[in-house]
């Protein structure tokens, strides 16, 4: 079961017990990343936590103890299930992620690396945002590079940076692939700088929300989540 959860390079899964995982630095030069993630999880916990974020169970030795998500990350789950995932489930994920990111931003945090690889699924297939090792706390610099297909052409250290990346996440949830799969990073960056994005017309109301996120037409995740909740009603 342990190898079902994949973390970014520099981290290792030390143990799985009592429905939790222990995340520790794999190398000494990664200790500052674990420290940043610990600070962020503690900030989120102090504010009451959120059901859309992996539950934090405190520190263990040099690492942190987190809720175990038995269904792995959304990208891996999608690769295994594909077209079998109903639209209602996909929309639920999008809404849960938006609500969680709204809470995260209210705590003075910019995630900076919002991708389907960093969103996990619990036993009930609820989306759980995770991986804050590279995130910004109270305006501190991001400690991780942003994936090109999710990188805002403006500032990535901003609410808009996470909203832009969220749009790419929802696009992948709805289509099965990240934006502009097959293009180089430089080609993707060039498209985004010219405000050229994948066509979302076939995705209906959800496609319109994705495009509004890419075009920075939302001020925050509260409005994004509200629009998602209204889809199909």
From TrEMBL:
A GO MF label: protein serine/threonine kinase activity
Origin superkingdom: Eukaryota
Keyword ATP-binding on entry: yes
Summary of the function given for this chain in its UniProt record: Component of the EKC/KEOPS complex that is required for the formation of a threonylcarbamoyl group on adenosine at position 37 (t(6)A37) in tRNAs that read codons beginning with adenine. The complex is probably involved in the transfer of the threonylcarbamoyl moiety of threonylcarbamoyl-AMP (TC-AMP) to the N6 group of A37. BUD32 has ATPase activity in the context of the EKC/KEOPS complex and likely plays a supporting role to the catalytic subunit KAE1. The EKC/KEOPS complex also promotes both telomere uncapping and telomere elongation.
EC top class named in words: transferase
Catalyzed chemical reaction(s): L-seryl-[protein] + ATP = O-phospho-L-seryl-[protein] + ADP + H(+); L-threonyl-[protein] + ATP = O-phospho-L-threonyl-[protein] + ADP + H(+)
UniProt protein name: EKC/KEOPS complex subunit BUD32
Natural source organism: Parachaetomium inaequale
Keyword set, alphabetical order: ATP-binding, Kinase, Nucleotide-binding, Transferase
Pfam families: PK_Tyr_Ser-Thr
Regions that span the bilayer: none
EC number(s) reported in the record: 2.7.11.1
Subunit structure: Component of the EKC/KEOPS complex composed of at least BUD32, CGI121, GON7, KAE1 and PCC1; the whole complex dimerizes.
PROSITE patterns per the UniProt record, alphabetical: PROTEIN_KINASE_DOM, PROTEIN_KINASE_TYR
InterPro entries from the UniProt entry: Kinase-like_dom_sf, Prot_kinase_dom, Ser-Thr/Tyr_kinase_cat_dom, Ser/Thr_Kinases-Pseudokinases, Tyr_kinase_AS
Domain Protein kinase stretches: 1-233
């Amino acid at each position: 079961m342990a190898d079902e959860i994949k973390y970014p390079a520099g981290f290792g899964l030390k143990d799985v017990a009592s429905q939790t995982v222990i995340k520790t630095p794999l190398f000494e030069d990664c200790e500052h990343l674990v420290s940043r993630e610990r600070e962020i999880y503690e900030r989120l916990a102090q504010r009451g936590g959120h059901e859309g974020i992996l539950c934090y169970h405190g520190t263990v030795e040099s690492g942190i103890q987190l809720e175990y998500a038995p269904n792995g990350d959304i990208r891996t789950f999608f690769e295994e299930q594909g077209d079998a995932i109903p639209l209602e489930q996909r929309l639920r994920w999008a809404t849960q992620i938006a609500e969680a990111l709204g809470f995260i931003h209210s705590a003075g945090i910019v995630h900076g690396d919002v991708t389907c690889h960093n969103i996990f699924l619990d036993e009930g297939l609820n989306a759980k945002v995770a991986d804050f090792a590279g995130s910004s706390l109270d305006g501190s610099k991001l400690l991780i590079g942003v994936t090109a297909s999710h990188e805002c052409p403006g500032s990535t250290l901003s609410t808009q940076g996470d909203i832009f990346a969220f749009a790419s996440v929802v696009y992948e949830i709805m289509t099965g692939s990240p934006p502009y799969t097959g293009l180089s990073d430089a080609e993707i960056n060039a498209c985004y700088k010219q405000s050229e994005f994948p066509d979302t017309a076939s995705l209906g109301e959800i496609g319109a929300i994705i495009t509004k996120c890419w075009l920075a037409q939302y001020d925050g995740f509260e409005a994004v989540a509200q629009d998602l909740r209204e889809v199909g009603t």
